[in-house]
């Protein structure tokens, strides 16, 4: 077999000029460092540069962060001087429980970096999404989280979700396409993609420093999709009752998942 030199640099396509306040923000996001935000010791954490770019692009004035994790979003908001309500199931507030949002002032941006189902177990709490007994149960919880966040937003607010696919060992290394399933859950929650998906390169992953005996195509990215309420997009939808309706398949009607 011919030796192939792996790419160490990726040349990105030239982005078209436009009126964006952040011309460097494109569908591909790559930051070598993680920045001064959050804790690098928290497994599965992400850097704060994408969060910062999105908050500035959408002009966020208040932020909801119902899955604090390492505290990255909270810290970015502090640096930018943006009020942020941040909580986590580890502190007793479950993002999939409507009572966790009671009494909150409407925010105009929500940041979600949920567990990638059971890839990493984050707590012993059975309500934690990383302990969901099945993929259907996980997606059901995620739909609840998206619905509660939608209800906690201003009418023109946005929800950004960062999530990635992975191979699930407990189901025989079946590929779990969480970005696609998340968009289905978002549509079920009355949301619609507000812009292009953003591919975020994963620099500094623990798995990148390991050696595996099995053969597979390594995943080096996750996907951030920004959603807004479906009513904001209705004016662009075909003007018939049938074609304007979005009817996602209920989770229970899909093929049985692991």
**Name of the top-level CATH class:** Alpha Beta
Helix and strand succession?
EHEHEEHEEEHEEEH
CATH level-four homologous superfamily name? Vaccinia Virus protein VP39
Biggest sheet features: 8 strands, mixed
Helix content: 10-25%
Structural class: alpha/beta
Spans of at least 5 consecutive residues with low confidence: 239-255
Question: Which CATH-level-2 architecture?
Answer: 3-Layer(aba) Sandwich
Cα-to-Cα separation, first versus last residue? 37 Å
Number of helices: 5
Please give the domain count: 1
- Overall number of strands: 10
Sheet-strand content, in percent, reads: 15-25%
> What name does the CATH topology carry?
Rossmann fold
**Chain-averaged pLDDT:** 86
Overall 3D form: globular
Radius of gyration: 19 Å
Could you characterize the architecture of this molecule?
Helices cover 19% and strands 18% of the residues. The longest helix is centred in the middle third of the chain and has 17 residues, at 135-151. Strands 1, 2, 3, 4, 5, 8, 9 and 10 form an 8-stranded mixed beta sheet that branches. Strands 6-7 form a two-stranded antiparallel sheet. The protein is α/β, with parallel strands linked by helices and 258 residues long. The chain has helices at 49-57, 72-80, 135-151, 178-188, 241-244; strands at residues 28-29, 63-65, 84-86, 107-112, 153-163, 166-168, 174-176, 191-193, 198-201, 221-229. β2 (63-65), α2 and β3 (84-86) form a beta-alpha-beta unit. It has one domain (28-207, 216-253): Vaccinia Virus protein VP39 (Rossmann fold, 3-Layer(aba) Sandwich), CATH 3.40.50. The chain has 5 helices and 10 strands.
């Amino acid at each position: 077999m011919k030796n192939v030199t792996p790419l160490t640099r990726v040349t990105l396509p030239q982005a078209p000029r436009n009126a964006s306040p952040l011309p460097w923000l494109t569908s591909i996001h790559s930051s070598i460092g993680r920045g001064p935000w959050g804790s690098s010791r928290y497994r599965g954490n992400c850097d704060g540069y994408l969060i910062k770019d999105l908050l500035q692009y959408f002009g966020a004035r208040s932020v909801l962060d119902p899955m604090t994790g390492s505290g990255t979003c909270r810290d970015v908001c502090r640096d930018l001087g943006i009020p942020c309500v941040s909580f986590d199931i580890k502190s007793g507030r479950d993002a999939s429980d409507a009572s966790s949002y009671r009494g909150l002032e409407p925010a105009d941006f929500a940041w979600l970096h949920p567990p990638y189902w059971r890839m990493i177990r984050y707590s012993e709490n059975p309500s934690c999404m990383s302990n969901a007994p099945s993929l259907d149960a996980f997606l059901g919880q995620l739909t609840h989280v998206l619905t509660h966040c939608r209800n906690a937003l201003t009418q023109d607010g946005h929800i950004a979700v960062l999530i990635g696919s992975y191979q699930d060992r407990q189901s025989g290394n079946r590929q779990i396409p969480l970005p696609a399933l998340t968009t289905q859950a978002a549509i079920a929650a009355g949301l619609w993609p507000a812009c292009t998906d953003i591919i975020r390169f994963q620099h500094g992953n623990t798995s990148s420093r390991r050696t595996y005996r099995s053969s597979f195509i390594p995943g080096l990215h996750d996907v951030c999709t920004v959603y807004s309420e479906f009513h904001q997009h209705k004016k662009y939808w075909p003007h018939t009752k049938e074609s304007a309706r979005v009817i996602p398949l209920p989770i229970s009607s899909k093929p049985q998942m692991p």
